[in-house]
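Structure first, sequence second, as always.
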């Protein structure tokens, strides 16, 4: 979203801290809520996403506008605007479609490892291969200092993460029953990581937990990279159609090698040789990528 500079609005002002009533308008909707006194542009955007995230197309540009009493109309939100009094704001989509560039940098990336559990071993196609690729991704994350969030679907019944996958250093390992990984604890963990922009997502199953996680993440304004050679399902048809659907929403379907080399970006990177050795050591030819 983008905002241009202009003067502010009007209303009654609370003395000091506390919360301030704000009317959030988007399309034909208007929902009253509140934000902390002194909230700025970023908090307003977060509130818009929490109220209208399922309706906002994150691949468009937006302008945030403030209703100005002196003009009796909306104006572009002033640069450096802070909420100090009751006001009305709206989110206006521009007609220009944004291109998802898919740039990855270690400082703004987090890895999500989804439900790589023992009970799935006999059922998931190419499960041994995605274990191998997941190992490579997690080793790369440790080398590059990238936070890792891991979930396990109902581990009491489905078992823990397979022993081959080393979870040492993971920021969070969390049991769940919801299909999506986007749980309150995961959102809190993301909030603790400054500047997160991109999620690299892998695990099982592509058409269930991976798909639902990806859609929730882009609804919250994050860019999602699904690692095709580390993601599978019981059915290759389910997997194929899920990846096609997700790609059409602007989610980036990529490979483990592409992700790791994009993160180092330069052969002069201090960790390049170690990442290169990871790639050389494990590159299964499973047939998964022929079914993307």
């Amino acid at each position: 979203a983008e905002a241009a500079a202009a003067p502010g609005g009007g209303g009654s002002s609370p003395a000091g801290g506390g919360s301030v009533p704000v009317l959030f308008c988007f399309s034909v909707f208007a929902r009253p809520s509140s934000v902390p006194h002194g909230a700025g542009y970023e908090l307003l955007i977060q509130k818009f996403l929490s109220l209208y995230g399922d309706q906002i197309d994150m691949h468009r540009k937006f302008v945030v506008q403030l209703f100005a009493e002196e003009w009796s109309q909306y104006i572009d939100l002033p640069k450096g605007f802070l909420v100090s009094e009751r006001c009305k704001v709206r989110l206006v989509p521009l007609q220009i479609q944004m291109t998802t560039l898919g740039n990855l940098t270690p400082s703004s990336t987090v890895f999500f490892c989804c439900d790589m559990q023992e009970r799935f071993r006999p059922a998931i196609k190419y499960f041994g291969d995605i274990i191998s690729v997941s190992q490579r991704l997690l080793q790369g994350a440790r080398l590059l200092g990238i936070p890792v969030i891991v979930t396990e679907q109902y581990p009491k019944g489905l078992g823990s993460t397979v022993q081959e996958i080393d979870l040492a250093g993971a920021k969070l390992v969390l049991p769940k029953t919801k299909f999506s990984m986007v749980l309150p604890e995961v959102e809190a963990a993301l909030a603790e990581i400054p500047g997160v922009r991109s999620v690299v997502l892998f695990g099982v199953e592509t058409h269930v937990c991976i798909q639902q996680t990806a859609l929730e993440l882009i609804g919250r304004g994050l860019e999602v990279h699904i690692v095709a050679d580390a993601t599978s399902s019981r059915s290759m048809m389910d997997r194929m159609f899920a990846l096609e659907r997700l790609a059409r929403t602007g989610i980036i379907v990529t490979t483990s090698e592409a992700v790791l080399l994009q993160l180092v970006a330069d052969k002069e990177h201090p960790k390049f040789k170690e990442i290169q050795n990871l790639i050389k050591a494990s590159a299964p030819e499973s047939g998964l990528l022929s079914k993307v």
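Margin note: The longest helix spans residues 127-144.
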